[in-house]
Specification:
The chain is built from 13 helices and seven strands. It has 285 residues and is of the alpha/beta class.
Length: 285
Amino acid sequence: EALDFLDIKVSGNYIDGTLGGGGYSKIISEKIGDKGTLISIDLDPLAVDNFLKNEYKNVIVVNDNFANLEKIVLENKKRTKFDGIVVDLGLSSAQLDDNSRGFSFLNDGELDMSFGPQALLDTSFIVNSYNIKDLERVIKEYGQEPWARRIAHNIVFHRKKKKIKTTQDLVDIVKASIPRKFWPRKIHLATKTFQALRMETNKELESLEEFLPAAIKLLKKGGRLVVVSFHSLEDRIVKNFFKDLAKKEKPVLKILTAKPLNPSAEEIVNNHRSRSAKLRAIEKL
């Protein structure tokens, strides 16, 4: 569906703002042909290295944050406007499955969660240095975790005795903070805390807010922007940004998705990690 909304044209110019496992980029590269250009961006050097193992003559691969979109385009001397831009804000399966990255609470590993070495923070610093109020704010706001206060309190209590180093250390603290009768049935009880700390580590909402206006600016007339988000706060930012520009006296864009598109039941069965995805798309006027 994301690629359908992108409406890829032969010889067109496109941007994949979140390369990840390269799924979108491979198909876009094939469809645009030798005369087209694709700029694929990812903050994770592993994603960049994995993609570069293949040879794509029409793809420029950039290790950077998609928040720096205008700078990236300028540095690569692409003065043209673009036919389409796509971003998929979810983690890649490779990141989740890599124990050394600390993204997953299902495996024990170092508490890092940064998308790449350019990140200003790592999760270990946050849990071992933030004061109790800031920890509670992050877990409550980004994770929408009702037990945020108790979790923040227990993080501070435990780190006084010993530095919190691993994902298992953090999972144990979350377990001790939530009474067993309130443990969620459908998701792991540490899901919301890990999500919140990852978002703070990588300043994900701030990056999205910087990216959106730059993307609109770089689209040509009739160009399309497709955003796939996995968090209600991300989706709200995208929805409100699109709505504001569509409602102007001289609208800047046309919304192609009146409501966000959700994954089909079949897709969720094939890839359970897609279950919370929401797709929104616009066309520039």
